[in-house]
Amino acid sequence: MALEPEKLVCDFTGGAVGHRFRHGGGRGQALPKAVGMKGGKTPDIVDATAGLGRDAFLLASLGAKVTLIERSEKMHQLLHEGMERAIAESSEFAEIIARMTLLLGDARDLLPDLAPQVVLIDPMHPPRKNSALVKKEMRLIRQIVGADEDSVELMKVALATASNRVVLKWPQRAEPMEGIKAPSHQITGKSTRYDVFIT
Predict the structure, then answer these.
(1) Does position 130 have pLDDT exceeding 60, yes or no?
(2) Which is higher by pLDDT, 185 or 133?
(3) Other C-beta atoms within 10 Å of 75: how many?
(4) Would residue 191 count as lying in a domain?
(5) Reduced to 3 states, what is the DSSP secondary structure of residue 133?
(6) Measured between alpha carbons, how far is 36 from 152 in angstroms, rounded to an integer?
(7) For a 10 Å CB count at each end of the chain, is N or C smaller?
């Protein structure tokens, strides 16, 4: 039985995202540290693979201006609807969403003109050997956006355009991305690591 993409919802105010927003630990979390939010610095960030926008929302909630790029029209529409719902929810959420700019397009084409400080890349990760572990939501996203076969190319464009750093969100135990230089350092979470490339 095929899963219905329509069941996928972009929700910034409830569930795991809402909980992370209220109890997440602020700038001490792995992602804010990885993008360089320390010592009072708040860089402008381009999330080159926006997906459901959760990382972008977290960073915007901590004061960063975030440009979200999504090339899937379906996913872009889900993001747009989620942002509109959050704006309607409360002025607190509306203020966060105001720091988020959503673009439809291929990040490889858009990044050079955006001249970003920091680029965050969270490509579709290599499929796990045990597919039962892959959450239903991730399967739905994969159905919509595909496999990100060009993520190495995207990384190369990001490394050439980011003035400060590129952050690659990658599974904790996955091999380094082929064809890309070693990161300057890594910040590890429970199941995810952030490979940080200072440019």
Answers:
(1) no
(2) 185
(3) 22
(4) yes
(5) helix
(6) 23
(7) N
For residues 170 and 193, is the Cβ–Cβ distance under 8 A? yes
Quick one: tokens of 135? 């959450």
Task: Answer whether residue 10 is part of any domain.
Answer: no
Phi-psi region of 22 (alpha: psi -120 to 50; beta: other; left: phi over 0): alpha
Provide the CA 70 distance to its chain's centre, in angstroms.
10
Tokens of 11: 């929700």
What does the buried/exposed string (b/e) look like for 103-114 if buried means 16 or more CB atoms within 10 Å of the residue's CB?
A: ebeebbebbeeb
The whole model's pTM is what? 0.86
Whether 144 is covered by a domain: the verdict is yes
Strand duo 185-188 + 192-198: pairing: antiparallel
Distance, CA of 18 to CA of 182 (rounded, Å)? 34
Beta strands in the chain (DSSP E): 45-47, 66-70, 100-104, 118-121, 165-171, 185-188, 192-198
Helix (H) / strand (E) containing 71 = none
Q: Whole domain around residue 153: which residue ranges?
A: 42-173+183-198
